[in-house]
């Protein structure tokens, strides 16, 4: 069984996908982490993320592994654990840029399909998992929330970590990443026609989780 969860940055999809995978004992596949791992390598090598050929060349010589862990998943780039290093705004932005290239997407999508098939039961999360990676997924969710709410969540998360951040700057970053993800030619961020759309703006994570689990369990019973 494949459960696909897509949505913009900050919609809560990663947290929810991990919770669901744990509850059901399914494999959790974080597709964004794969784009982020490539982005980190691109940055380290000083390569221009807007150059499709150069990014593709790097990707062809890159090994990305996702391994289940307590927190959800550990991400390995050429054998190095980069799980924390890929979680910065800067890497998110570079990931968004390299994700615009058709051939880069084709390679990563292929890897994601293989991971899904190997897992048999998986929760796969990203931007195009219900539209492109697994168009035949058993259940598709599209989580969304207003840009303001998503920026507010990110702001609080960073504040709690003790970082000195500006809400306005985060809001601008959220809007910019939405723009990049929605306007790209290849697999733009949009809900699959048969996706269940859930606005999480005025719900907390536990409410969203319970709602999704109920839908999934009803589907499993049928
Ligand atoms: O979900 P995330 O923030 O970790 O994703 C980082 C970037 O990777 C996102 O801005 C766009 C890209 N991405 C994508 O194009 N397709 C996916 N399935 C997942 C991520």
Folded structure, characterized:
The chain has 222 residues and is an alpha/beta fold. Helix content is 53%, strand content 17%. The chain has nine helices and eight strands. It has helices spanning 13-24, 31-45, 52-60, 89-98, 102-119, 129-133, 147-160, 167-183, 205-221; strands spanning 2-6, 27-30, 64-69, 72-77, 80-81, 122-126, 139-144, 196-199. The strands form two sheets. A five-stranded parallel β-sheet has the order 2-6-1-7-8, with helices on both faces. It is globular, with a radius of gyration of 17 Å. The protein binds 2'-deoxycytidine-5'-monophosphate. 2'-deoxycytidine-5'-monophosphate is lined by residues 9, 31-32, 35-36, 92, 95-96, 99, 126-129, 177, 181.
Short key terms for the protein model shown above:
single chain; alpha/beta; 222 residues; 3-stranded antiparallel beta sheet; 9 helices; binds 2'-deoxycytidine-5'-monophosphate
Work out the helicity level: 40-55%
Overall geometry comes to globular
Q: Evaluate the radius of gyration.
A: 17 Å
Number of helices: 9
Number of strands: 8
The run of helices and strands is EHEHHEEEHHEHEHHEH
Give the integer mean of the pLDDT values: 95
Unreliably modeled segments = none
Alpha carbon gap, first and last residue: 13 Å
Which class do the helix and strand fractions yield? alpha/beta
Measured by DSSP, the beta-strand proportion falls in: 15-25%
Distinct bound molecules:
2'-deoxycytidine-5'-monophosphate
């Amino acid at each position: 069984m494949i459960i696909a969860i897509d949505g913009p940055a900050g919609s809560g999809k990663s947290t929810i996908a991990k919770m669901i995978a744990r509850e059901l004992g399914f494999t959790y596949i974080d597709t964004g982490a794969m784009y982020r791992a490539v982005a980190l390598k691109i940055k380290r090598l000083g390569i221009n993320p807007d150059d499709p050929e150069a990014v593709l060349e790097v990707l062809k010589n890159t090994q990305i592994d996702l391994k289940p862990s307590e927190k959800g998943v550990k991400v390995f780039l050429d054998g190095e654990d980069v799980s924390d290093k890929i979680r910065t705004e800067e890497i998110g932005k570079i990931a968004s840029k390299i994700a615009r290239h058709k051939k880069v997407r084709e390679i990563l999508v292929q890897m994601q399909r293989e991971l899904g098939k190997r897992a048999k039961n998986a929760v796969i999360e990203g931007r195009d998992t219900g539209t492109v990676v697994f168009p035949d997924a058993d259940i598709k969710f599209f989580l969304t929330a207003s840009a303001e709410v998503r920026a507010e969540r990110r702001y609080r998360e960073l504040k709690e970590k003790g970082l000195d951040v500006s809400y306005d700057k985060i809001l601008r970053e959220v809007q910019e990443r939405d723009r990049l993800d929605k306007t790209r030619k290849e697999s733009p961020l949009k809900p699959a026609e048969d996706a269940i759309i859930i606005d999480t703006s005025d719900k907390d994570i536990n409410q969203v989780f319970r709602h999704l689990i109920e839908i999934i369990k009803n589907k499993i019973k049928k």
